[in-house]
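User: These chains co-purify. Model them together.
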Amino acid sequence: MSAETRVPLPPIGAQKFSTVCQFCIVGCGYTVYKWPVGKDGGPRAQENALRLDFTRPQPPLAGEWISPLMHSVVADRDKSRHNVAIIPDKACSVNEGLSSVRGAGLAQTLYSADRPTRARLSTPSLNDGSGPVALGWDATVELGAAVVKAVMDRWGVDAVGMKFFDHGGGGGGFENNWAVGRFFFSSIGTRTASIHNRPAYNSEVHAAGDAGVGTLTNSYIDAGLADTILIVGANPYEAQTNYFLAHMVPNLQGATLELKKSAFASEVVEAGRMIIVDPRRTMSVSTAEAAGGADRVLHLQIEPGGDIALLNAISRVVLERRWHDIAFIEDRTERQTFEAYQRSSLGVDRPMREFVEDAARIAGVTPEQIFKAAEWIARPKSDGSRRRTLVHYEKGLIWGLKNYENIASIVDLALLTGSVGKPGTGCSRLGGHQEAYVRPPYPGGRPALNVDEAVRRGEVKCYWIGGCNPVLTTLRAEALEAALVERGLPVRKALAATRGKPIGERVGAIVDAMKAGGMFILVQDIYMTATARHAHLVLPAAQWGEVNLTSINGERRLRLYPRFMDPPGEAIADWAILARFARRLRQLYLDDNNTQMANRFLDYEWKTDEDVFIHARYQFKGDERDPAEGFAGVTYGLLRSLGNNGIQTPVRMINGRPIGTVRLHESGRFSTASGKARFIPAPRPWAGYAAKVERQRRDNRFWVNNGRSNHIWQTLYHHEHIPFYQDRFPAPYLEMHPDDAKSLGIAPGDLVELSNDVGKVQALAYPSSAVKRGHTFMLFGQPRGAAGDLVSDHVDPATTIPYYKGVWASIRRIGPQPETMRGMSLMPMNVAL
Amino acid sequence: MSIKPDCACTHPCDAQRRTFIKVGAGTLSAGVAYAIAPMTAYGAEGAGSPSAPTVNVTPLDAVKENAVLPFSYPDADSPAVLLRLKGPAQGGVGPGSSIVAFSVLCTHKGCPVSYRPEHKLLICPCHWSTFDPVKGGQMVIGQGSQALPQIELRVKDNVIQAIGINGLIYGRHTNIL
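Assistant: Joint model of the two components:
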């Protein structure tokens, strides 16, 4: 796309769809206009579908603008060509007409033979070492199912391993998640299952579950109602953008005072405050200060691993000052857990000052900051009313030093202060992806099996990967990739040696290869990713906009994301792929006269996306027992009528009508047997490093934090095909302190190499004052440099959660900024005022 | 493994980069090796459509070091700013190719951005999108969906003229209304 200077306007009568962005947890609402090429509307209001006057410029903020990025041209299967414009929906309460940089480019992610998205996978194919060869679906399913069956019959169901998405939005959704769960858990019954971003099948927040507290407990409106918003281990300007901009920022700016007054009739209200716990001075910190003033923002620039100490110290101060919510604790928590918590986590046997000073030392903050944080979180307001505090956390805690106790300590703080189930409060993940979890139960236990290790050990004979890219994102990523290569090779050779032979012979040769340590790999995706390249069978999936899908966002808002165009070639929905394999497996077992196994593969006759949605819906009763994602009583028809504001789950059936839920735990009931929440002890303020992590730390100078960036989404599976995104960061950047960079002779933009005992990776140096000396930050999951190559394979033994944030590496300059990357700006990314 | 090529497609990844280099007067000297985007922004947008006007902005001599000069282009409803930066910039004219100009309407929601010389960035007060005037108005971080449209300048008879726009100005379906 050269500098486009004209965008066609949709005509009256253009097709119009309400949809939700495919990308981050916020799930902004968008409107899709689709009309035939050559039939554009005109600039006068009565000539275009927006009914706006484009003969004059649109005003700022309130105006609507189709930027070049929001427009593209697609072709349907019948070859008819259409303009598509995807613009933010002003009527959606989530984003109120705002787009983020990611959502603004939705139109560019659509398949087109004329654009780089032509790289989409469109034909099922077999790769026996000589490159992908197209098969039809029938031949693909015949071979794949025969291999899966052979593995199950010979080695047992657990020899079939999987790594699939479990999220919502693009590449996920309730429909696909249901099919994945039925196929692998009910039908196959394997325990060797893992999730897109971790090597096991587990919760990212087991401690919250154990406490009985949900993960998405508030509504976005609560960010406007809160007195204080606490953000731990997250960068919402960049990763939950419009939740931050449309809901948190107005609170900091004092623009939600009327909203607060109308909600809290007699309570003192004022502009909100924000506490941000993050080792970096991120754009979130700068913009929060710009919005509310530096005196309303407290940035605790924490040292890695200091979270438990910090959060428990804040809680100790709250307790000592008698600011905790006694009524809430007595009515709604299990008393004995509160007492145990005080003794174990809050160190009540020690003087508070000493406890706080120790914590300050571990966390790298000052005792004064800890006392201040406690005040902002829990000190009663001037009229004696309780402060309303909204507690948010994300990957800084989840992938931090000690996942279980990290989450325990923040949930405990929320319970201590009664910060859940009331307006203006909540204890919630900020989220990365959207959500859409509905599956039959996972047959394995807890802590869950580490599938990466099982793959490396050769226990997985057939590995099925869907909608994720572990070669770029997993821990000890080079070793995982090496396993895919080494174990894939004997199978590749078997396939090559049996080209053109009957399927029985092919499968026999593959089984022989597996006996020698080989592994058959299927990858289901939309592009030939770094992981898909290692597959024997590549299965092309349809994406957002090419299927109907449903998901919830960070406030459990369930909406329909409709189909508005055809997928490329033979790509079909993920659920449809699995259904084909299931039907074939059923037939194979029937041919074997194995009725018992055959019956496990029943009920895959879905014809439409909604068939799958309704099938999943049978899990839900519409009462108190449903999980937070419950959507009893919901149909696509209902969702269409509700548009982009949808309905918030769990949906209860009340007098036969589906009613949404604004906040979890508002009735005071928590998800424990007693209905009361539990304080979960997090006794060790300093968990200490596992030996392999300690070795890394000892041997290498720099801490390499890693995470997301505002501009691009995850592993760039779309964005590397869209110049606006790819060009901003043509290779992953590495933020490092300017003095550290100078000490190593590194200039901005220089190519650097990070290395440790786990691996090596390259990045572009991006000196920044955002990080402390000795700290760095690298973009994760990038095709041109995977931070996962540096992450040790240590996992929290209680949860099998990796310590992605726990990387130490040495850094050296390799060379100057590559010529082809010189267009990239290296200016600071955290300037707001 | 250092670089994992994750793209099986055959197009050169920087072929469609949205930048331009002036050749001739005001050539950017750094020898940067990326493709020159076709200048479709300038002149005809299609048969019968009005082309970008040529507008005198200011005499070259009037542009002192660190100058920040508001003006309008291509019409009175399109506020713009002319900057003299400390060093060479993409698309720069005049001494050391340091004079550039941009539409100031943020490519997010159209609020006017301001040049902050202490940060060397154009920053939007609404949602803090920031743009780099040295790199063709590239968005450094922010929610806009395009670089800040750069106004093509030339020097004629010691007068700086605006002669075209690279990119689409906020709020418009075409630059020339």
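The first strand of chain B starts at residue 55 and ends at 59.
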